[in-house]
């Protein structure tokens, strides 16, 4: 999740754990710091943008390592707060703030390596978007009331908003499973072969959902809103670069993205003769956040050059109105089928 959500969650958890044992502002500040701490790994440069992608949410998000780190952090928080006799309670508070960070991240589609250093498997439920105001705003409200309000009333508000935001996460998982059932039935009805399917929310809500189904030669994209009723699901199909995937199966960049994306990737040779690989989980066709140029298309697997990330951003003047319309209109199509198409800007 985004940094604001993680800081708000950390503050809410520490406030709930410490209660009236310390000043609310102290609990909120330490909680925000602990809730943000695991994401400092984003500042580590591993040598190329693809490695930076797959090494984010790795060791710093391992549950065992965070549990170990919570003891010295709890001791430090207790000492600096002038409450050394409460270090065990501070230890518990820091442990909960640290551990809830990767657990929340796991609900996004990115991939979180919870079992580091014993396993590098990237867990990803994919039931919430990385920015979800319906999750974050209640947390911020609860923390704000706890800090500026009376002790008892403020802590009750914080606990209530923490429970509400957690219930929102539970709702997202239930909604995801419902949508998955609808979309699997649609694939069967249309006779479309798919080895695996990803279902994840479109930006900013859990009402509109996006699906990517991987077929032998193509991947299929569809959108489904909980407001669609019985309207048939519309699928669009796009080449996945299966031949290129076989040809470059030994390329370490290809292997790395295939592992991290759980196979939800595309390969292309562009008009300049460059080979590109794309993570299909994060983006809206045809624009994707993690799109990489990995070298000449004719190069051998052993001739791996520098990786260049080409972060694609859709034209927001078209994308945002389309997202709003698609919430209630199942005939709105997709971004890739808008009249005149949609342009994808790039950023470093």
In short:
The protein is built from 10 helices and 12 strands.
Q: What features would you describe in this structure?
A:
There is one protein chain. The chain is an alpha+beta fold. The chain is 45% helix and 16% strand. The chain has 10 helices and 12 strands. The protein has helices at 3-18, 24-36, 49-55, 63-80, 87-106, 133-148, 151-189, 242-247, 252-260, 316-328, and strands at residues 196-201, 208-214, 218-225, 235-239, 265-269, 274-279, 283-284, 287-288, 291-296, 308-309, 311-314, 344-347. The strands form 4 sheets. Strands 1-2-3-4 form a 4-stranded antiparallel beta sheet. It has a 4-stranded antiparallel beta sheet with strand order 5-6-9-10. It has a two-stranded antiparallel sheet with strand order 7-8. A hairpin with a 6-residue loop joins strand 1 and strand 2. Helix 1 packs antiparallel against helix 5, helix 2 crosses helix 5 (87-106) and helix 6 packs antiparallel against helix 7. It is globular. The mean pLDDT is 92.
């Amino acid at each position: 999740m985004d940094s604001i959500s993680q800081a708000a969650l950390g503050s809410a958890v520490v406030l709930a754990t410490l209660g009236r044992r310390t000043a609310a502002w102290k609990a909120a500040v330490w909680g925000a710091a602990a809730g943000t701490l695991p994401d400092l790994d984003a500042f580590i440069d591993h040598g190329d943008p693809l490695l930076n992608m797959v090494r984010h949410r790795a060791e710093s998000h391992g549950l065992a390592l965070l549990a170990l780190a919570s003891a010295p952090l709890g001791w430090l928080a207790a000492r600096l707060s002038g409450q050394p006799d409460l270090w065990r309670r501070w230890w518990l508070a820091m442990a909960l703030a640290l551990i809830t960070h990767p657990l929340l991240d796991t609900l996004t589609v990115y991939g979180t390596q919870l079992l580091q250093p014993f396993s590098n498997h990237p867990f990803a439920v994919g039931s919430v978007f990385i920015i979800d105001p319906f999750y974050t705003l209640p947390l911020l409200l609860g923390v704000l009331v706890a800090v500026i309000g009376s002790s008892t009333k403020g802590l009750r508000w914080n606990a209530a908003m923490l429970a509400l935001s957690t219930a929102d996460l539970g709702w997202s998982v239930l909604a995801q499973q419902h949508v998955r059932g609808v979309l699997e039935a649609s694939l069967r009805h249309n006779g479309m072969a798919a080895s695996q399917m990803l279902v994840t929310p479109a930006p900013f809500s859990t009402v509109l959902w996006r699906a990517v189904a991987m077929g032998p030669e193509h991947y299929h994209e569809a959108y489904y809103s909980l407001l669609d009723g019985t309207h048939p699901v519309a699928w669009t199909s796009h080449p996945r670069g299966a031949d290129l995937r076989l040809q470059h199966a030994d390329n370490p960049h290809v292997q790395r993205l295939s592992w991290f994306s759980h196979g939800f990737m595309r390969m292309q040779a562009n008009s300049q003769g460059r080979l590109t690989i794309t993570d299909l989980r994060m983006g809206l066709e045809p624009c994707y956040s993690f799109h990489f140029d990995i070298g000449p298309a004719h190069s051998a697997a052993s001739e791996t050059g520098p990786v260049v990330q080409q972060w694609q951003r859709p034209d927001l003047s078209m994308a945002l109105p389309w997202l709003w319309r698609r919430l209630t209109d199942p005939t709105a199509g997709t971004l890739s089928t808008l009249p005149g198409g949609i342009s994808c800007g790039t950023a470093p």
